[in-house]
């Protein structure tokens, strides 16, 4: 065999780590030594935090740890997070949909999650929250954002509709 202007017996051109002849297999030179691909990956390649296998191309870094793109998934639904907007809670990564369904406060008007992401504004009053679009008078549907309001049990009312309470 010939490599880098040197001639080798086939049995002498071996992997530095496993000592097996490289023959016609792919190899990777490092520091004037040759390694078969599996040995090189075991010794030098970055390992995925999730599956512990080498990351040979691409990869994602999250919290300063390496992941395969296909291993970096939502904790809840297991959909890939690479290239997607996501958030975390207690060191676990979630897609926005799962995070909102599991942890976000629910709107007292429509009961959908209030994400607060992307600058979404919401109203908070006495342990309850509303999307801005849902903060309306229960009787006449007038928006109460930035206005005075009254409460009647769980309902919010504009001053005109609430004057009889």
Count of β-strands: 14
Overall 3D geometry?
rod-shaped
Q: What's the pLDDT, averaged over the residues?
A: 87
How much of the polypeptide forms β-strand, as a percent range? Answer: 25-35%
Q: Major β-sheet, in short? A: 2 strands, antiparallel
N-end to C-end Cα span: 97 Å
Helix content: under 10%
CATH topology of the largest domain: Cysteine Rich Protein
Subcellular location: Nucleus
Keywords: LIM domain, Metal-binding, Nucleus, Repeat, Zinc, Zinc-finger
Domain LIM zinc-binding: 46-105, 106-165
Protein name: Four and a half LIM domains protein 2
Task: Provide a descriptive summary of the structure in words.
- The protein is mostly beta strands and 165 residues long.
- The chain has 3 domains: 2-44, Cysteine Rich Protein, CATH 2.10.110.10; 60-102, Cysteine Rich Protein (Ribbon); 106-157, Cysteine Rich Protein (Ribbon).
- Helices cover 10% and strands 27% of the residues.
- The chain contains 2 helices and 14 strands; from the N terminus they run E-E-E-E-H-E-E-E-E-H-E-E-E-E-E-E.
- The chain has a two-stranded antiparallel sheet with strand order 1-2. A two-stranded antiparallel sheet has the order 3-4. A two-stranded antiparallel sheet has the order 5-6.
- The longest helix is centred in the N-terminal third of the chain and has 8 residues, at 37-44.
- It starts with a strand and ends in an 8-residue tail after the last strand.
- Keywords: LIM domain, Metal-binding, Nucleus, Repeat, Zinc, Zinc-finger.
- Residues 46-105, 106-165 form the LIM zinc-binding domain.
């Amino acid at each position: 065999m010939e490599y880098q202007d040197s001639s080798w017996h086939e049995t002498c051109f071996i992997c530095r780590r496993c000592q097996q002849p490289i023959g016609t297999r792919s190899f990777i030179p490092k520091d004037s030594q040759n390694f078969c691909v599996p040995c090189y990956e075991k010794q030098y390649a970055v390992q995925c935090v999730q599956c512990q296998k080498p990351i040979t191309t691409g990869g994602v870094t999250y919290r300063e740890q390496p992941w395969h793109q296909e291993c970096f998934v939502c904790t809840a639904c297991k959909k890939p997070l690479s290239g997607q907007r996501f958030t975390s809670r207690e060191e676990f990564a979630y897609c926005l949909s799962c995070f909102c369904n599991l942890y976000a406060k629910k709107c007292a008007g429509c009961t959908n999650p209030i994400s607060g992401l992307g600058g979404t504004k919401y109203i908070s009053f006495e342990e309850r929250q509303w999307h801005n679009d849902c903060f309306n008078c229960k009787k006449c549907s007038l928006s109460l954002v930035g206005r005075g309001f009254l409460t009647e049990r769980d309902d919010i009312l504009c001053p005109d509709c609430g004057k009889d309470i």
